[in-house]
Amino acid sequence: MAPVDREIQVAMHVIVLGAGVVGLTTAWYLRADGHEVTVVERNSDVASETSFANGGQLSYSYVAPLAGPGVLSKLPKWLLRGDSPVRYRPRADLQQWRWLAQFVRACTHRQSEESTRRLLSLSFFSRDLMDELLAGEPDLSFDHANAGKLVVHRTKASFDAARRLLEYQRSLGCEQEALDAAACVAKEPALAHLAGDISGGIFTGSEDAGDCYQFCVGLMRLLRKRGVVFRFGTTVTRLQRISPRRIKAFTADEDLQADHVVIATGSSSVPLLGRLGVRAPLYPLKGYSLTATLDHQALAPRVSITDYERKVVYARLGDRLRIAGMADIGGRRADMNAGRVATLRAAAKAMFPGTADFDTAVAWCGLRPATPKGLPVIDRTPFDNLWLNIGHGALGFTLALASGRLIGDLISRRRPAIPTSGFALADA
Length: 428
Ligand SMILES: Cc1cc2nc3c(=O)[nH]c(=O)nc-3n(C[C@H](O)[C@H](O)[C@H](O)COP(=O)(O)OP(=O)(O)OC[C@H]3O[C@@H](n4cnc5c(N)ncnc54)[C@H](O)[C@@H]3O)c2cc1C
Hints:
About 30% of the residues lie in helices and about 25% in strands. It is an alpha/beta fold.
């Protein structure tokens, strides 16, 4: 555990709701501050929902939000085509329409650049914290590798746009290089058969990959050793106001005693908070993944690869390949759509043929807890003892350590390690 170098006034009892990657990192920093911490989780294990089989990318330099200036012209395709990377299905759901309206308003150059800048400050801080964590806990094993990431562009237009973004990101401290097709293949020989289809790529050497579920299991073990209590199989059914500025959390048959409550319940936060009159600006973006055991490790990529046009990411996790993609705006249930899984299987077969049997690769889907601007909410609610660490969208694994540390700073009434502007509930 990171040394407790930060003084706090009073040790308190804090309940963290949700044992996904965000809840666990929150517990980590609260415990490091000397607080008594209880993690309450409705499932019987950590990371059983969105943190289970995500893309595995610790994507510190690729944080640009989905809401960008080029997005609106793509909306008709998203509505009409079943195999587009982003798919929109309108629902008779006021929250969906409200979220979409906010999303559309965020699709400007200015907002996109501002969100990117704020997310980079969070992701760079997360990278520092990951280094610190791994230096202190060398036995934390989650198939973590620092092999870099190569984003491959098939068309000249998208490669040109990526080079322009590279210039902007360079001004914010990202170290990236633009590579032509031959240099892409030299960097990752597993792409050799695609050389003729590639216009170019952007390589970032400082990107990592790892298995988010294993990371969470490792963190839970360390937290338990340090006295953090885990209450699995415990669903918080309601949050109730007990005085003008305080709330209490209830399960079906008890009230949970605590000084503070942190909500880290991902997409499920909306109904919990809604009953209190706190509107969480989240809508779930459903995504899919495949996990394939590699038959021919020598043929498989070592570098994390993003197929930009198809919006599919490939991460090497030890002797496995994780393939992830799709963003479906169309409902709140994490139910699998066979057509989407088939599209992902076909993409993997075309990208890395012969490396694994993608027909039998394990399919999974999860709900990214997305805010319209793509920025998480790391803030107190109007209630003094109720805190939010939600809305990490497509970047929860990447940002979890930084946002866990920031909420810890706020609860311990310390100046946050980095500025938190942009992550307030009112900003979302
Ligand atoms: C296909 C896909 C690919 C992705 N790829 C990446 C990637 O490569 N890199 C990256 O950084 N991020 C990625 N993400 C995003 C990342 O997985 C999420 O941002 C992250 O997992 C969110 O974590 P969380 O802890 O907020 O939510 P969750 O993991 O969903 O955890 C919330 C927890 O709260 C619990 N809970 C909910 N309600 C209650 C209740 N009432 N009582 C008790 N417990 C409750 C749930 O059971 C759950 O365990 C991806 C997501 C998807 C879907």
